[in-house]
Amino acid sequence: MTEQTATPTPNHMTDRRSAVPEASAATTAARDRGAGRTSQTRQATGQTGSTGRAPRRAWFALAVLMLPALLVSIDNTVLSFALPEISSDLEPTAAQQLWIIDAYPLVLAALLVAMGSAGDRWGRRRMLMIGSIGFAAVSVGAAFAPTAELLIAARAALGFFGAMLMPSTLSLLRSIFTDREQRRLAIAIWASAFAAGSAFGPLVGGLLLEHFAWGSVFLLAVPVLVPMLILVPLLITESRDPNPGRIDVWSILLSLATMAPIVFGIKHIATEGVDAIGPLFIAVGLVAGYLFVRRQLASDAPMLDVRLFTVGPFGGAVLVNLLSVVSLVGFLFFVSQHLQIIAGLSPVEAGVALLPGLVAMIISGLVVVPIARRVHPRVLVPAALSLSAGGYLVVAFGASDGSTGAVIVAFTMLGIGIGMAETVSNELILSSAPPAKAGAASAVSETAYELGAVLGTAGLGSIIAAHYASAIELPAALTAAQADAARETLAGAAAVAAELPAAQADALMHAAAVAFDGGVLVTSLIGVGLMVAAAVIAAVTLRNPAQHD
Predict the structure, then answer these.
(1) Which residues, including other chains, have CB under 8 Å from residue 114's CB and lie 6 or more apart?
(2) Integer Cα distance of 160 and 312 in angstroms
(3) What is the pLDDT of residue 399?
(4) Spatial separation of the C-alpha atoms in residues 143 and 214, rounded to whole Å
């Protein structure tokens, strides 16, 4: 298939062209070339008429592009539910347990900007196909990892190929749907795939975990990706930046040197405490980030146009996404353990308990589309995030003694708020960036998402772990090895309790539940603060959306 530039043709040019006789076709073509847009552009974006409305084929393409989003959300959610079995089988330390979750988003966040820029240059569809093949192959390897170290390595490799997937899907939507209202709906449907995957993952993953080993959850990637490999070439035309500029190796290296050390430093402080290593890595990342920004500002064709962050809706929407995902992923991290280990639910039962909130997230992301036509983002997004803050208050003061009702209510409130806010913010991010730079802009959005996933588990998860280790009151009859294992993680306490007589086991699990839920209280109050901060940022920055329709 011929590769074509996916830059939309303005409606006024299309309308004028329809009134020009065939004899003046050369003049029309010259005018198109002068504007950097040819008649091939409409084919690449799926445009056939003068209104910019997408044809039916574009909606089938949307369905295909939802599959990577579905896969990523399934992967994250299923892994949280599989963590107790992974901990029992591979016996990871507390730090390794966090790395099993965080290796994927860490590598992915470090590479997203570079991969988004590569998609703009070499073709977004091409990057999507390469990433899909690699992701499926590595998922099979992760399913059979015999040690915690190899599982962490496989998760890192998944992050490498995942970095090719996500910017490509969102930027392809930008090129396919040039009509503002259709694009908002398409993004809402695409974003709902994340929530749908979160709903689908626990249920199917729970069934797998009850009948098969934990590695089966990684094999879910194969049936999700195979249809995409077949349908993407048939439905989606290649798109790229028509003027990508030269390859800037230094910018790629600086982007890596910015993200990886900062995230590693945050994780180190969260797991090991404040020492010389964590601040040193953060300082290295900040220096690299400063040099990256300087280089982008001085370049005529920057890999990432950092001036976009001076556009209020773009920078504000990115921060809203970041803080929202920190809150959501942190919530799922501790609630999945609370439901399974403290409340005693099976993986399937825990998935069912979270299902109302996940369904609410999907529905709210779609319902907000017509609302966004009438309510300004600076009002709509803060209102949604305030509801999410209320959800954290419910879990802070209601999820104790193994109860599940408060968790269900809290997650429903959190899901509604985040579902609405992220649909609006993702659309603002794409609309605020020029179409030719859709890949880089999408990469920024996805970087915020994955960095938020890291901070949600490494930050909020480590706060719970630290509180748990310091607050748990262990029974005196434990051996030194048992005490160390029970103090390290909640799953470790459950494993030790299984070896003890009934009375001692009950005492240990009661002490573990009290200590863990005390950490949940602290973390939930932090979640309230994050949601309030995001609401304030949205109210201040989303005043005058600048659009590149």
Answers:
(1) 163, 252, 255, 256, 303
(2) 31
(3) 62
(4) 8
Closest CA to 547 of 376, 425, 421, 431: 431
State the burial class of residue 19 (Cβ atoms within 10 Å of its Cβ: 0-12, 13-18, 19+): exposed
Helices 124-143 and 221-235 cross at an angle (nearest 10°) of 160
Quick one: pLDDT at residue 442? 66
**Distance between CA 22 and CA 314 in Å, rounded?**
42
- Outline where 91-220 has alpha helix (H): 94-122, 124-143, 148-176, 180-211
Question: In Å, how far are 56, 217, 221, 282, 433 from 229, measured between CA atoms?
Answer: 20, 20, 12, 39, 29
DSSP 456: I
- Helical pair 148-176 and 56-90, crossing angle rounded to 10 deg: 170
Any idea which residue has 């499926």 for tokens? 136
In angstroms, the CA 249 to CA 255 distance is 10
Query: How much of the chain exceeds pLDDT 90, in percent?
Result: 9
Cβ-contact 192, 365 below 8 angstroms: yes
Is the distance from CB of 418 to CB of 357 less than 8 angstroms? no
Can you tell me the distance from the alpha carbon of 203 to that of 349, in angstroms, rounded to the nearest whole number?
8
Inter-residue contact 288 to 257 (CB < 8 Å): yes
Q: What does 14-30 look like in DSSP terms, one character per residue? A: HHHHHTS-GGGHHHHHH
The total of other beta-carbon atoms located within 10 Å of residue 46's CB is 22
> What is the distance between the alpha carbons of residues 158 and 78, in angstroms, rounded to a whole number?
15
* Residue whose structure tokens are 């190929």: 161
Query: What digits encode the pLDDT tens for the residues 168-202?
Result: 787 788 778 877 678 778 877 877 776 666 656 66
Segment 14-62, tens digit of pLDDT: 333 333 333 334 433 434 433 433 333 333 333 333 346 767 888 888 8
CA 191 from chain center: how many Å?
Answer: 10
Q: What is the mean pLDDT of residues 151-160?
A: 90
The two tokens of residue 127 are 């990057």
